[in-house]
Amino acid sequence: MKILVAEDDTTSRLLFGATLRKLGYTVTAVENGQKAWEAWEQDEYSLLISDWMMPDIDGPQLCKMIRAEPSLRYTYIILLTALDGKGSYLEGMDAGADDFITKPFDEEQLVARLRVAERILALHKKLHIQATYDRLTGVWNRAAIMDHLEKEVGRAACQSTSIGVLVADLDHFKRINDAYGHPAGDTVLQEAVRRMCLVLRPHDRIGRYGGEEFLIIAPECTENDVVILAEQIRNSISREPVDSQSGGIPMTVSLGVTIGGNQVGGDAGTLIAAADKALYRAKIAGRNRVEF
Ligand code: GH3
Ligand code: MG
Ligand code: MG
Ligand code: MG
Ligand code: MG
């Protein structure tokens, strides 16, 4: 666990740094709020231990700045205070702090508070994973891939690049379930994801959009690129049957693709609708094919 310490008092800063390192943590210790903010923006810290009173940006202000960032990671914040004013605890909590340690600190108390921090952070991580990933296939879930699409559409518009959107739907998947059973169907879904990921480029992202339907976002893609990528996915999926206890299960996929961003325009909803329409055409035209 990486800890950021912000403390303007040199003795206290050194003492915190040394104690935390002795306890096995990786520590960055800085002497004011501004430096803490810069460090927090640059690196991933799970925990911030910040003094309350510091020149320029003080502890509560730093808390507010961090909480105002739409970040997926949670930074657990402990404020250090020499104050004993009861009102200030509430002010610190309202600013976004999770806990307090009074100075001079007691080591056992620090260890106890770190245990709580680790417990909360582990819980947050678990919930974050559950809320972001599809449990069966391990790729992003629908909400996560849709968030990503919105971001990428915005980015493509700003940077004048185009973005490929692909909807891949396994063909006659219901028949696979009916013929081989639901568990075998699950295995086919996992294998389909594995095969799709083999051909994706480093910045392409995939999410499970529905039962046997996947959404792929391919940044910086021309019309030509997105069709080539879709054909690679189609080939990768159908190359050979999926191994199962009941023998090989043949699998094919249909893809509807479109591009957005630069010159083309369109928001996330419009792009999905266009890719969906293309997918429908691919199904009508006989499946195991790509339509733009
Ligand atoms: P089409 O080629 O038109 O797409 O036909 P299809 O059979 O693939 O499409 P349909 O929408 O009729 O059926 C999809 C099936 O996918 C129905 C559903 O039971 C199955 N399914 C959805 N989620 C899961 C899952 O997590 N595991 C398994 N095994 N099956 C699933
Ligand atoms: Mg101070
Ligand atoms: Mg299907
Ligand atoms: Mg269907
Ligand atoms: Mg479907």
Automatic annotation (TrEMBL):
<dbReference type="InterPro" id="IPR043128">
    <property type="entry name" value="Rev_trsase/Diguanyl_cyclase"/>
</dbReference>
<dbReference type="GO" id="GO:0000160">
    <property type="term" value="P:phosphorelay signal transduction system"/>
</dbReference>
<dbReference type="InterPro" id="IPR011006">
    <property type="entry name" value="CheY-like_superfamily"/>
</dbReference>
<dbReference type="InterPro" id="IPR000160">
    <property type="entry name" value="GGDEF_dom"/>
</dbReference>
<dbReference type="GO" id="GO:1902201">
    <property type="term" value="P:negative regulation of bacterial-type flagellum-dependent cell motility"/>
</dbReference>
<protein>
    <recommendedName>
        <fullName>diguanylate cyclase</fullName>
        <ecNumber>2.7.7.65</ecNumber>
    </recommendedName>
</protein>
<dbReference type="Pfam" id="PF00990">
    <property type="entry name" value="GGDEF"/>
</dbReference>
<feature type="domain" description="Response regulatory">
    <location>
        <begin position="2"/>
        <end position="118"/>
    </location>
</feature>
<dbReference type="Pfam" id="PF00072">
    <property type="entry name" value="Response_reg"/>
</dbReference>
<dbReference type="GO" id="GO:0052621">
    <property type="term" value="F:diguanylate cyclase activity"/>
</dbReference>
<dbReference type="GO" id="GO:0043709">
    <property type="term" value="P:cell adhesion involved in single-species biofilm formation"/>
</dbReference>
<keyword id="KW-0597">Phosphoprotein</keyword>
<dbReference type="GO" id="GO:0005886">
    <property type="term" value="C:plasma membrane"/>
</dbReference>
<feature type="modified residue" description="4-aspartylphosphate">
    <location>
        <position position="51"/>
    </location>
</feature>
<dbReference type="InterPro" id="IPR050469">
    <property type="entry name" value="Diguanylate_Cyclase"/>
</dbReference>
<dbReference type="InterPro" id="IPR001789">
    <property type="entry name" value="Sig_transdc_resp-reg_receiver"/>
</dbReference>
<feature type="domain" description="GGDEF">
    <location>
        <begin position="161"/>
        <end position="292"/>
    </location>
</feature>
<dbReference type="InterPro" id="IPR029787">
    <property type="entry name" value="Nucleotide_cyclase"/>
</dbReference>
